[in-house]
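Lab notebook page, bench 4
Experiment: in silico fold of construct C2
Operator: M.H.
Input chain length: 145 residues
Purpose: comparison with the prior construct
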Amino acid sequence: MSSTQDSGLPEPKFRRNDGEWRANLTPEEYRVLRQAGTEAPHVGEYTDTKTEGVYNCRACGAELFRSTEKFDSHCGWPSFFDPADSDAVILRADDSLGMHRVEVLCSNCHSHLGHVFEGEGYPTPTDQRYCINSISLTLQPTDGS
């Protein structure tokens, strides 16, 4: 039985075994994407970028977010108010660290992206903040950016 079956999630469309993940990701990417780690705040390459484009999963390349949904939350990580497609991410309860949060996973490969928070008062259409690790993303700039 695989860990995705154990977790109650549907099987990912994009799969690699642990050795393949380790061979294709840096140790820090692996720690965040495959072990649900968190990069340090204010150090990620996309935290403050204003470049227009599409943010893809660093592990599998699936489209996750667009710059049109990115906003300045000043929390230390890139923040989005909505995924590019409602099926692009999976949300699941995360009760680690003695608190309740909602983890955000890539629906294509089940890699850890970050967490989503609601009701914080940001002036966004959804009142949600998808707080995403930069290291979980790659940005494909829009032509002409």
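Observations: Residues 1-6 have pLDDT under 50 and may be disordered. The first helix runs from residue 3 to 6.
Next step: discuss at group meeting.
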